[in-house]
Amino acid sequence: MLPTLRHGLVAAIVPAFLVVSGQVALAQVQPGHSVGLKISEIARSLEDNGYEIQEIEVKPDRVEVEVVIEGEKLEIKVDPQSGLVTRVEHD
Fold it and tell me: How do 52-58 and 63-69 pair as beta strands?
């Protein structure tokens, strides 16, 4: 019964930590995060994390995604071979 109790406590506590100033805190994508190999996967992954996509540019060695989150403009670079975020820059 202890594992069930622990799981229930964690499930109840974790959402409380996600609420910041009355808004749900969104997960920030960082270098090393997997966002997918296909453009549609990358877009869906970023949108699911609260990013508004402005532009996606495919280059031979990377995918550059211009996004906005909470009013902040960022450029997220993704390795097209691994699907991993390589850089997140303020735009």
Answer: antiparallel
